[in-house]
Design a protein that fits this description.
The chain is an all-alpha fold. It has a single domain, classed as MFS general substrate transporter like domains (Growth Hormone, Chain: A). Helix content is 79%, strand content 1%. It contains 16 helices and two strands. Strands 1-2 form a two-stranded antiparallel ribbon. α4 packs across α8, α10 runs antiparallel to α16 and α13 packs antiparallel against α14. It starts with a helix and ends with a helix. The protein binds glutamine.
């Protein structure tokens, strides 16, 4: 059986989803459990265990997240050129397991070592699993968006459980009577490593049904030479860890890295563009517009793990609709909960609008994403009017803010991944997916800076003053999001032209 036939067989699936999507769903679900579990602990860990002040912790948080997503570009590049999606993903999973085990053993001592392994690991894992999802569909298959939405629900199912569980265990609001105080952080990081092992085992099983999808791009090369390239990539990705430790633990270096990687990725894209037709290049330019706006989106959205973590810890009460819950756990997981609940509904609304001839194009959907984002941040701002004299305000209202923002995310994030696979030529799929996530890196980076500004303005303030400063910060972000939304809708006809019929 030749490779085209196998891929065609997979792509000619009957029904709404290919069966492989479900396997990838679970693999990504566990990986995101691990990732968001760790992520949700970072700021609290750094302030309570490593004794960083809030401003430093915010910057540090932004840096780690920026590196995580920046490495997706590198991981995508090596997948397209050397390893193929599968080996990249597998290798990334191994590195993530190593990172989380290191953290489980002694997070206080080996924090940056563990984090750095995780950074490189998710760089190899994250973009490539998303690209494999795109590969399950033929060009122009209108079931692609629905597939990415389902996959995105998997992302968020993992994020929901991991995001709540790990931080709640670490803070002692869950299983406190079973876990000795001094081991709470170890156990919480330990959870992340166990689920990452499950993710990888799931993927090993999945591979059997992927036909030739994601195999080596160097299949025609002499095996010995190919192995050498692969081994160099594996060794290189380990050798780079000490370098990342240095970069990530030092925010000036992070700045430098961020100055370099973005322009480098654009130069690389321009270099690759020489080999494509004008029509293909126009589509790539459209992809860049989406990527640039997504930077802004994530810069606001990703306050979630940074400044909103501190806001949750300091300024929110602990009852949601009458049920006692950890506010940090809610901050980490409410958004995911709403994604799971509403991803399918949003999909149905698009199909319904399509039938009526009113479905907005992807650019307008992105614009709507910003408008929801703006409305959500206005709600965060509004919480200040419900505060008591200690500066503690309503978790209910805060959660409602996440409810609104989630619709914004659903207008942008799954659709963004899907449009990357549709606008990129075959040879550049993983790199473009990497660039999509690289935009998140910049988003995270700017999110850290924005969060640090808010945190530094509130240093030495009372809790009530803190609340006001944070809330006013969110009001500003809401305004910027509103402006972006309007701008995107205004330029939509132009971008639509560049997309040449791709939807
Ligand atoms: N929440 C999504 C995920 O984890 C998107 C993250 C992002 O691109 N910033 O996959």
């Amino acid at each position: 059986m030749n490779s085209t036939l196998e891929i065609e067989e997979i792509q000619n699936f009957k029904g709404k989803y290919p069966k492989q999507l479900w396997y990838l769903f679970f693999s990504e679900m566990w990986e995101r459990f691990s990732f968001y579990g760790m992520r949700g602990m970072l700021v609290i860990f750094m302030t309570s265990q490593l004794m960083m002040n809030d401003e430093v912790a915010n910057l540090q948080y932004g840096a780690t997240q920026a590196f995580v997503y920046a490495f997706t570009f590198v991981g995508g590049m090596f997948a397209d050129k050397i390893l193929g999606y599968r080996k990249s993903l597998f290798w990334g999973g191994i590195l993530m397991i190593v990172g989380s085990i290191v953290l489980a053993i002694n997070p206080q001592e080996f924090f940056f070592l563990g984090i750095s392994f995780t950074i490189v690991g998710s760089g190899f894992f994250k973009p490539n699993i998303s690209t494999i999802v795109g590969k399950l569909y033929k060009e122009g298959d209108n079931r692609t968006d629905a597939g990415f939405s389902l996959f995105y629900a998997g992302v968020n199912l993992g994020a929901l459980i991991g995001g709540y569980l790990c931080v709640a265990v670490a803070k002692g609001s869950l299983f406190a009577s079973y876990i000795p105080v001094e081991l709470r952080w170890n156990v919480a990081f330990g959870f992340a490593s166990i689920v990452m092992i499950i993710s990888l085992l799931t993927f090993v099983q999945t591979q059997k049904s992927l036909g030739k999808i994601g195999l080596s791009p160097l299949a025609d090369m002499e095996p010995k030479k190919r192995k050498t390239y692969e081994i160099i990539t594996f060794l290189g990705s380990i050798a780079i860890v000490p370098f990342i430790i240095l970069l990530v633990s030092n925010s000036q270096y992070t700045d430098l890295f961020m100055f370099i990687i973005g322009p480098f990725s654009i130069l690389y894209l321009l270099y690759e563009m020489r080999g494509f037709t004008l029509a293909e290049n126009k589509k790539l330019i459209a992809a860049m517009v989406f990527i640039l706006f997504s930077i802004l989106f994530w810069a606001f959205f990703e306050q979630s793990g940074g400044s909103l973590s501190l806001f949750a810890a300091n300024n929110l009460n602990d009852t949601l609709l009458g049920v006692e819950l950890d506010p940090n756990g809610v901050n980490n997981s409410a958004n995911s909960f709403f994604v799971i609940l509403f991803a399918a509904l949003v999909g149905v609304v698009w199909i319904w609008l399509n039938k009526k001839g009113f479905e907005p194009n992807t650019v307008v959907k992105f614009g709507l994403g910003f408008l929801f984002l703006a409305a959500g941040f206005y709600v965060f701002y509004y919480t200040k009017f419900f505060a008591d004299e200690n500066g503690v305000t309503s978790l209910d209202l805060f959660t409602f803010g996440w409810f609104i923002i989630t619709f914004g995310e659903l207008c942008l994030s799954p659709i963004g991944m899907s449009i990357m696979t549709k606008l990129s030529p075959q040879k550049l799929q993983a790199v473009m997916m990497g660039m999509w996530f690289l935009a998140s890196a910049y988003g995270q980076y700017f999110a850290g800076i924005l969060g640090a500004n808010i945190a530094s303005a509130s240093e030495n303030s009372s809790n009530l003053e803190k609340l006001t400063i944070y809330a006013d910060g969110y009001q500003q972000l809401a305004l910027y999001a509103l402006i972006c939304g309007i701008a995107l809708i205004a330029i939509s006809p132009l971008v639509k032209k560049l997309m040449q019929g791709v939807k």
